[in-house]
Amino acid sequence: MTTPAPASAPAQSITQRLANPTRFMELSGTILPWLTAAAIAVLAWGLVTGFQVPPDYQQKHTVKIMFIHVPAAWLAMMAYGVVAISSFGLLVWRHPLADVSAKAAVPIGAAFTLLALVTGSLWGKPMWGTYWQWDARMTSVLILFFLYLGLMALRSSIEDDDALASKLTAILALVGVVILPVIKYSVDWWNTLHQPSGVFKGAIDPAFLTPLILCAIGFSLLFFALHMKGMRNEVLRRRLKARLQLEVDRAARNDSRNNTSSGPETMTGGAT
Amino acid sequence: MIPDLGDHAVFIWSSYAIVTAVIGALSAWLIVEGRSLERQLAELERRREAARTARP
To answer: Which of A39, A90, A203, A211 fits as disulfide partner to A49, beta carbons 3.0 to 4.6 Å?
Structure first.
């Protein structure tokens, strides 16, 4: 009877190779400086172009707020898309980096959502005469902001079981995906004070569209740079935690070895 | 030179100031946190190395 040859390890797919934290740290360490430089350059280009545009016939100079408000609002939603896809990756494929990605994207998404809300209010006061209106678009974006806060609160509330915290946060993130189409179509489904998007409908003059697109690309690059940095920090945090745990385990093993070698004396001492 | 942004300049400058402050704070937090984690990991590695060499 012949002994079967040991099965060789299955070849890793490209996604599996990229999901390796060590490989990710190497790759991101190379990409991050270039990504950051590109983000700053495009953003500076967009903002300089934006400040040179003539005033809009209706909005006057407040049209300049659009160059930061619209990208912030896009990224608020895109960041949630990243959280949702990463959460799906964690629950279904258990990618080692999926949870790292989801966790890192949440505070950045929350920051962009806050910026969308604040810059929108600052545009609304001079143009609509009010900072805030409980219309469908604004209210749904506010709910998105609370959803981000909820994801952070849920994760930090489960301190002693990281795996459970990750899974529960991922489930909440996937349930929360329903907010994205509500935000997107709120201006069509309901009668809102907030106007529908005109970016892809040819409703914006090229003089305003160019800085808007540049700022959108610049802010998107900045988001990816911040997300990558956040992921790197999270990988380092997990490494540190694992190594500290290893130290604690080693110290506990040494203690128990010392106690065993000191023998009956300790036993008697402990019993009394 | 500071451009003249008309009657609503305060709203425009406030928007840009808040975006700068929030993005700046987020970036600073990530950079400081990253440095702190790298320092702690290096310190741990140094302690482990010292313990290994001190072992008889």
So the answer is: A211
> A105: closest CA among A97, A115, A95?
A97
Residue A263: pLDDT band (50, 70, 90) is: low
For residues B15 and A119, the answer to whether their CB atoms sit within 8 Å is yes
Task: Note the pLDDT tens digit of each residue in A109-143.
Answer: 999 999 999 999 999 999 888 999 898 899 999 99
A195 min Cα distance to partner chain B (Å): 19
Check CB contact under 8 Å for B38 and A51: no
What separation in angstroms does the CA of A155 have from each of A72, A101, A150?
A: 25, 14, 9
Cα separation, B10 vs B16, in Å, equals: 10
From residue A77, how far is each of A73, A132, A223 by CA, in Å? Answer: 7, 20, 12
Do residue A119 and residue B40 have CB atoms under 8 angstroms apart? no
Spell out the residues 6+ positions from residue A267 whose beta carbon is closer than 8 angstroms to its own: none
The rounded distance, in Å, linking the Cα atoms of A16 and A12 is 6
Chain CA centroid to CA A113, Å: 11
pLDDT digits 0-9 by tens, B6-22: 788 899 999 999 999 99
Q: Answer for the pair A224, A35: CB distance below 8 angstroms, yes or no.
A: yes
SS3 A56: strand
